[in-house]
Each structure stands twice: as C-alpha cells, then as structure tokens.
Amino acid sequence: MDKELISPSYGRFYPLVVKSGKGSIITDMDGNEYIDFNSGLVCMNVGHCHPKVVSAVQRQAEKLLHYSFTDFYYEEAEDLAQTFTEITPGHFRKKIYYGNSGAEAIEAAMKVARWHSKRPRYMAFIGGFHGRTFGSLSLTGSKPVQRRRFAPLLPEVTHVPFANCYRCPFKMTYPECGMYCVDFIEDMYFKKFLPPEEVAALFYEPIQGEGGYVVPPEDYFLRVKKLMDKYGILMVADEVQSGMGRTGKWFASEHFKIQPDILCTSKAVASGLPLGVTVARSELMDWEKGSHASTFGGNPVCCAAANAVIEIIKEEDLLAGAEKKGKYVMKRMEELQENCEMIGDVRGKGLMIGVELVKNRKTKEAAKHEAEEVMIRSWRKGVAVITSGNSTIRIAPPLNTPKELLEKGLDIIEESLKAVNKEL
Ligand code: PLP
Q1: pTM attached to this predicted model
Q2: Domain shared by 31 and 66, yes or no
Q3: CB of 135 closer than 6 A to ligand 1?
Q4: How many angstroms separate the alpha carbon of residue 362 from the centre of ligand 1?
Q5: How many helical (H) and strand (E) elements, i.e. helices and strands, does the chain have?
Q6: Quick one: which of 129, 211, 233, 248 could link to 323 by a disulfide (CB 3.0–4.6 Å)?
Q7: What CATH code is carried by the domain that includes residue 94?
Q8: How many domains does the chain have?
C-alpha cells in the first residue's frame, strides 16, 4: 500500500510499522517490541505516551481543539511562552512566535532577522540541516539529495565551514589550529566577497544533527559570536534537535556558553505533537501586525502537551539524567572503540551521541554500508536505531530510559558493531 499510495520522497530506514509506544519501547504491527534509541526522530525526550502528557492532551482536547492563535488568544500558549522565556539561555526580555514544525520555526527566524535588521543576506554552516521548506532548505547544507532539482533556492545564503574537527576541512588539528576556520570566515568571506554589513543572521546548530552528530570544541561558538558581534550579525540557534534537554542542558548552546539572539526549537517540545517555537530577544521581534502567522501555530493541545513536557523534565530531573546516562553511553562506546577498528570517532553531549564508522582509521573513508548494516542488524535484534551524516550511528534514546533498557540496547548495538567489524 505504501508503495502505491505514499510519496516516495520519504527517507525510510527499515520497514518498521509502528503501532504503539510506551516509555522507551515501541511495538510494531506484528507485536514485536523494540527499545527506541532514536526517540521517534529525536522527538520523544520524555518517552512515548508519558501519562502526564497524555492526560494534558486529553484534558485540553475535551475543552478546545482549535480556534486560531493568529487572530485570537489561548491561555496555554501564553503560559508556555512565559516558561520559554525562563528556560532558554539569556537573562534578557524575550518574545515568542509559534509555528508547527522545525522548518517553520526557522522560517520565522529568517523573516524576523531580515525584518529587524533590514539586511538581505544569511549565513549558515556546511553540514547543517535546517529543514526542507524553500527558506530553510536554502540554509540546509548536509546532503545533495535534499537540494537536487529544487533550485533556485533563496538567493544570498552563504555557507561557511563548520568546526568538524574529526574531518577538518583544512586538515588541521585542534587546538593547534587556533581555530583557523573562524579566521577563514573573516579573511576569505567578509574581506573577499560577502559584505558583512548585509548579513542579517548566521544560523547554527550547536551540535550538527542530520550532518552526523558533529560536536565542535567548547570554545568555538564564543569565537564565532565575537566575529558576528563585530559586524552586527545576529546568531540564530537551531535547537530543533539539540534542545529540550537532549544534551543534558535545556539547550545545547549552553554548553558553549553563548546566548543566541534568536533560538528555534521543535521536535521534542510537545512530545510528538507538531509545534515549532521561535524565541527572540524582545527588541528583535518588532515586526508589524499581520506580517507573519500560521493558522495552527500555537495550537492549544500542542501547547498543553509542551507545558506537560517541561514539567516532566523538571520533575524527573531529566537534564541531570541525560548527562549521567550520556556519560555511561560514551564510556561504553569509547571502550568498544579500542578493539573495534571500524569505530573512527565517538562524540556527543548528554544523550545526543554519534558513533562514526570508517573503513580505515587512517584514510577515514566513511563506512556507509557498514553503518547501515549495524542499524539493520540492531533493529532485527530489537533496537530501533538510525544513522545520520554519512556513516554515523546516532544514539538518542528518551532521556528517562531506564538503565537496564539502556544497557540492553547498548549490548545489542555492540554485538552488531562487533559482527560487522569482523566482516570488514
Ligand atoms: N533543524 C534541525 C536541526 C533538524 O534536525 C530538523 C529536522 O530534522 C529541522 C530543522 C526541520 O524540522 P521539521 O522536520 O520539523 O521541519
């Protein structure tokens, strides 16, 4: 039926038809159970069908499903906005815009940055992923298939190198490199062809998600921010994937000690219900009445779910939990790396962890087929895990996954890694 009826553009990792989910376990049509190591594409940070989320949704659904926040008001959306001003980085006044997805959160940031600054251009990083609508796709730079035959995209978007230290575009080594990649932006872009005073904003993922769970050095974004500040360019954090506690902080930008001017989040916000959130410094959101809105953005059921998610993260101390469990996963993967030639790099923060596979540690040739094989074998043995980038296994279970399940899932992934490594 799927082949006959559904657009073939969807990615689809393996033929898993999900029927139900509870906590960190999902069940397929045949009743097989899987430990969810990808949290439904990194959306289920508090686990599947958390009872508090379910009852918040039920309560709201009985009261009101929709009226439209574009022209009227909802209490749930106002409450959520208040909370967002508190949990996002920066002790300054903020304003919130609601859309329905990550891409819409990015679109809003693009438009408000241009509106406020009156500057036409944008910058983004090579390897970044910001969505698939025309505006957000223009910022995306992670895989050609995402852009092929969709040109022309938005003009005036310039991509600059990211601090991907495992695969440094300049073949240098941190910290001896002195973060040449940041100087490069000034010397080779701003001084050669990109007038910085025309750039409204630089969009960044603190940890690149779809690009392969790439974690830059901790002092990297401070250097980038200093450069952007010099030219009055806004910093927009795309925390669609890295936000909502995933990395052991509310937002991953905190690891890098920077406070973005605008922050976008989505995915895990409403535990699987569609909601995009764009948080900006108050003074930036000065666009006029009617200039931007969306019929469903800020839907009261989604906002009720999001308010519950935030409460759960606080009550269950999931930020500390993600950090602790993440350290455990990192340690196990690093130990495995010692005897598993195929593991080129292990990196991550909290429970956003990437294990990059290579055919050869010296040449670092991506082990794409092998990564897919590890993914499929793990799934067959009961762990729903997926890849990102070229050959990175991404480990991103719900933040409240019990330790025994985490261990069991890791055992299965380890087993698959060892078996595929032997065959390499
Ligand atoms: N930004 C990042 C970092 C993402 O990971 C994604 C989705 O994977 C998006 C934006 C786009 O979000 P959506 O698919 O909800 O439009």
Answers
A1: 0.98
A2: no
A3: no
A4: 33
A5: 12, 15
A6: 248
A7: 3.40.640.10
A8: 2
Atom of ligand 1 nearest to the CA of 103: 16
Range of the domain at 169: 54-315
Which of 125, 130, 253 to mutate for ligand 1's pocket (most ligand atoms within 8 Å of CB)?
130
CA–CA dist 30, 275 (Å, integer)? 31
Same domain, 131 and 175: yes
Long-range contacts of 413-417 (CB under 8 A, 24+ apart): 413/37, 413/374, 413/378, 413/383, 413/385, 414/332, 414/336, 415/381, 416/373, 416/374, 416/377, 416/378, 416/381, 417/336, 417/340, 417/342, 417/343, 417/355, 417/374, 417/393
**What is the distance between the alpha carbons of residues 303 and 61, in angstroms, rounded to a whole number?**
11
pLDDT tens, per residue, the chain with 424 residues = 999 999 999 999 999 999 999 999 999 999 999 999 999 999 999 999 999 999 999 999 999 999 999 999 999 999 999 999 999 999 999 999 999 999 999 999 999 999 999 999 999 999 999 999 999 999 999 999 999 999 999 999 999 999 999 999 999 999 999 999 999 999 999 999 999 999 999 999 999 999 999 999 999 999 999 999 999 999 999 999 999 999 999 999 999 999 999 999 999 999 999 999 999 999 999 999 999 999 999 999 999 999 999 999 999 999 999 999 999 999 999 999 999 999 999 999 999 999 999 999 999 999 999 999 999 999 999 999 999 999 999 999 999 999 999 999 999 999 999 999 999 8
Residues 33 and 60 occupy one common structural domain: no
Q: How far apart are CA 181 and CA 226, in angstroms?
A: 14
Query: Which residues have C-beta within 8 Å of that of residue 394, sequence separation ≥ 6?
Result: 38, 213, 352, 353, 354, 385, 386, 387, 388
